[in-house]
Structure formats: C-alpha cells, structure tokens
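Session log. Operator J.P. requested a structure for one protein chain; no other inputs attached. Running the standard single-chain path with token output.
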Amino acid sequence: MVMGKQQFKTAFVCGLALVLTICFAGTTMAAGKPVVWRLQSVWTTNSAIHPITAKMCQNVKERSGGRLEIKLFGPGEIVGSVECLDAVKNGAIEMASSSGIYNSAKIPEGLIEFGLPFGLENADQFYEFWYNYKDGENFKMVQEAYREKGVELIHINGGLSYGYITKFPVASLADFKGKKIRSFGFFGLVVSFMGGQPVSLPNEDQFMALQQGTVDGTIFPYLSMETMKFKEVSKHLVLPPALGSPSSDIFCSKKAFDALDPDVQQILREEARILNKTYLATEGPQEAELIANPASHGITVDRIPQEEIKNLRLQCMKIWDSTGKKNDRTKAIVANLKAFLKIEEAK
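Structure written below.
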C-alpha cells in the first residue's frame, strides 16, 4: 500500500511524538532516582563540626531536589580514618570529611594544606591565601594533586586555633623540657625544638592519656577544652597557638563527582563553603570567649614570651623548607606562603 503525503506526514509526527514521549519518560525516571553517597567523617560525633556536616548533607538533598542524598558516617564506621583517601579513590565510599594531614603520605601537598607551624594566623588569612591570593593559585595546585589520585577536592576548610594544652603551667619554653606531649608529624618536631618528648596517639586516645598521665599535654584545638571536656584533665591553654588556622577538607570520588549534574556539583561546593562559614561563625566567638574569660571555664591561659616564639618560628622554617622540597607544587606553595606572609628568605 502506498502512503499518501498527508498520511506520511501524520504518521511521522505521531512516531516522533512517541519517541519523544519514551525519551522524556526515561529521563524523568532517571531524574527521580536519587544518587546515594556515603560520607565518612574522621571527626567524632561529639565534635562541633559533626552536626554542621549533617546539616550540609540535608541541604544538598533538599537543594538538589533529592537527586543527591549523602549518608553521614562517623570515624571508623566503614574504614579507618587514614584510609579515607584510598577508600574514596577505590569507591568503597564516595566522600570524606578529613584533613590533608591524613592524606600526606599519598599527597605531600596535604602537609601544607593542613598548615605549617606558625604560618597562617587566623581564618581570614587562611581564606585569603587559599582562595584569593594569586587568583586562588594555591587551592588549584592542591586540587590538581588530588585529581591525580582520582579524587575531587571540594573544599579546604579553615579552622580555629590549634595549640598546646597542658597539665603543667607554662611561663617559657623551658617548662616543656622533658615533658611528654601528644603530637604528630612535623608538630612532633616542634615539640622536640621546645625540649619536649613527642608522643604519637590517635585523637580518640588523648583524653585517657592525659587523665592517666601517659602524656603531660597535647596539641589540639583550644575549644576542645570545652567541647571535648579536656579541661577536666588539663587546665592550661598555652598561647600563642602553633597553628592559627589548621584545615580540614571535604573530598569525593572524581568519577562520582563527574557523573553528577553540573548544578548539583555547584550545590555541593556551595554547601561545603557554607559548612565552614557556619562552623567559624558558631565556634569562633566561643573560642574567643574561652580565651578572654579562662577563670569562668576553670582553666588558665599561659603565654610564652614573644622573643622565644620568634626564635622557635625561625627553627620551624626548617620544616617549611623541608616540606617545600617534596615536589614542584609544594615548592611553589611554600614560596607563595612566604611571599604572602612577607617572610624574608634567610641570607
């Protein structure tokens, strides 16, 4: 049977409509099925950042219209904290809230990402250096290092003061001589520079170690004296902090990230930034109040003389220079940090 021109036109339009209907239906079904990610945090459920991270997950789900759902897990619930990077890379989990210091064995740039001793002094400096200075060049270099491992760095989060909390009074660096201080990485070297004995312990073992006298002090965020009740076992907060703004970070599988719709990718980045801003806005004033009114918290604020800190900072430049020799990127970032802080090279 020969189809007339009008019949052919009608059949063609109907067929096209059927194809479009099928395609549209398929797209709607795919869009209606949420992508579910597992996010493991290295921060304990009683930490200040945990409920804010939970809120980030909720916001992502709501803003994406349910297209991305993130389920939050605590430290060790799926993998060990130091295993998060490999777990994300290998797809055991899709996302992690961690820190560059945990990743530094695989990504040396993570050492600078976490913070070099006596480097950036506060969160404002932190954001300026990582996201604005030289058009965000430093963040881009660290992001590139993560991408080479199959991981997408979503955000580096600025933190609050990271310094020494001790069971003993401190009037000078001499008071650290022979004292056992829980530390890690190059912050163990700082303890050695001060005459103390660095002791390696995981975060979750600090309280008991202080309580039992296994260590005489620790390096940790000052606010932990309240949030994690460290003031019950250590009464002395020592200024100035060894690190004014230590960082945490949020990263995910690059493969999983690339599979998201572009607007969902943007939502994820925005909510990670909001998480950090919320944390700083909430916890920053609490830290300031703790330091300003120690007696009301049952603690003492001790201060190391500025001249001694100046000399200690010069010793710590050895750590900066050693870290800068890891690869071309670490060299460039350390050089940028010195230029940003107007630190002159030793003659």
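Operator note: The longest strand covers residues 151-158.
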